[in-house]
Amino acid sequence: MAAPERIFYITPHTAEDSEAVLTEAVASLGRLRLPLEWPGNGAAEIHLLTSLIAEAEAQLAKSVALARDQGCSWAEIGDLLGTTRAAAWQRFADHARTTKRRTKTELLAKD
């Protein structure tokens, strides 16, 4: 039996738009946390970027759980993550299972 056609082949990519958004996110977080200290400070920028990465990772897990609840296959999710179905499943299956049948608002809300 042939596998159903997958509609997602959108691998992650960076471009000027994502760079601009990230630059603004770093600047915004810097203004909130370190109003006078961070511009031009490499160590402060590392802290700000790792904070944003950690938040993005948490949001990504919630979005994967939401996509699974909405019927996306692990293969489709893997495509969107730029990885394999198996790697996506291994990384997110436990989280997706524990958040099953929650609403979009619940999944995207801070825990």
Rounded radius of gyration (Å): 17 Å
- Give the overall silhouette: elongated
The proportion of strand residues reads under 5%
- The SSE order reads HHHHH
Which structural class best describes the helix and strand composition? mainly alpha
Please indicate the count of domains: 1
The average pLDDT value, as a whole number, equals 85
Specify the number of helices.
Answer: 5
**Can you give the helix content as a percent range?**
55-70%
Largest sheet properties: none
**Poorly predicted sequence stretches spanning 5 or more consecutive residues:** none
How far is the N terminus from the C terminus? 41 Å
* Number of extended strands: 0
Question: What does this 3D model show about the protein?
Answer:
The chain is mainly alpha-helical. The protein contains 5 helices and no strands. The protein has helices spanning 16-33, 42-69, 74-81, 85-98, 104-108. It starts with 15 loop residues before the first helix and ends with a helix.
